[in-house]
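ENTRY TYPE: paired fold submission
RECORD: A
CONTENT: sequence, then structure tokens
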Amino acid sequence: MTHHIIKATKYTVHLGGFSHSLEPAITVNSGDTVDVETYTGFHVCHKAPPEFVTPALLDIYENLSPQRKIAGGPHLLTGPIFVRDAQPGDVLEVTLKHITPSLPVGFNAIRKNWGALPEEFNQPALRFIPLDLENNVTEFPTGSGIKIPLKPFFGILGVATAENSRNSIPPGNYGGNIDNRELQAGSKIFLPVFVPGALFSIGDGHSVQGDGEVNVTAIETSMNGTIELKLRKDLQISTPIAETPTDIITMGFAPTLDQALEKALKNTINFLVSCTKLSPEDAYVLCSLAVSFRITQVVNLPQKGVHGMLSKAILPEGSWELSNFRF
């Protein structure tokens, strides 16, 4: 196995979306690990304090080629990473080994006509928020005494599809802008592969976020991480699923929360049926008794997200195996 390093430069990042025609930033083998550097805030560089705009980010802002500006999304993503031998129908297992903010400042933005309350909070607002990386907290508002523990994660973990110019804002069966705060260091996400090489991209670092991400953004943060990419030809899935040290996480994405919940619930039932051999009815009952369904985000239009948290502790040891995925 080989360890790689990807620095975020104008040659290794792309803006606004995913595309199968992008030149890969790097090629890896299954089982390789990668140190990844990601930047955020491409569209706020001209308003940001000096400690936010590193020379590398400024070079990206000023010199990113038009070919690496894919669609209208705001996200600056590192990649894509080409995984040798990955073919449509395979599954890419992404293990998040380390996730660390790289700068002591992030930002939060309210966008006009976006968010959970677009009519009540209808004026754009941009805040740069200091991060106390030594103590792993942020105080917001500054001077309020309200201190929030940092729980960093990558909002976007996704692969390319046959669509040549896919906006980075909505999540889907390809992953993408999931914005699930449970996907912290120590977790894994499994993504269906749609194109040769998978073409995996990562970014949208968040230092902290509440479920729902109601005002459109979290504390958006330039983030470094270490990931392992493993090709799984023994799995068959059509939508992302994740695993933390304590839980299985199923997901549902749809235009409404009701529809997203229905998809997440059905995906949980399918997981239980395929991996524990429960009947569909027993799996449905178990979901009502023991699975917590949470709002992932309500702002990544046109797709809202719901995820189900199934504690691995309630399942008999050896009663489920990830290699049995069939949904």
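RECORD: B
CONTENT: sequence, then structure tokens
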Amino acid sequence: MTRGPTLPAHRLPYLPTPLDAFNGAPADEARALLLHCLHSLRWSHRIAAHRPYPDLDALLAAADEAAYDLSPADLADALAGESLPELPEDTYSAAHMALSAAHAAYEARFGHAFVIYLGDVPPDEALDRTLEAIRSRLTNDPEEERVTAAEELRRLARGRLGEYLRGAENCATSPHAPVHGK
């Protein structure tokens, strides 16, 4: 059997990835995006200044490193920009009251909003996990809690940045808001 002529290879047009867009964005736009991930000017300036990143893993590693290097003042600024994780819309009012009371006790003890990364927690477990974590962390001494809060901020920043860049890549099948996962 004789085969007919083959068609020339079809090349898809190059479409920039979200990482390409981030790498090529003006510095003020990149810093603004980064501030949605972590409310620290020093962190956002440092990451934006080291562009371009060859891949998402390199960007996330740089974000982690910059988060580990936050000074106490930088950490305080970042914590000041945070709020409690959002609860599902169908959460009953008693849960809201319990969370508000626990958060008020936390803020009175430590002087800042409670932060927790819930990116790997099923939505129906978020409230229980948050309440459990607040109650547990209320027993920390201030220095121990500063270290824990810094780690949770690092995880939040990494999750938000990764979700933004991965979510933008997958927007055709799974639309995501740029900032999520508080």
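NOTES ON RECORD B: The chain has one domain: 18-169. Confidence is low (pLDDT under 50) at residues 169-182.
STATUS: closed
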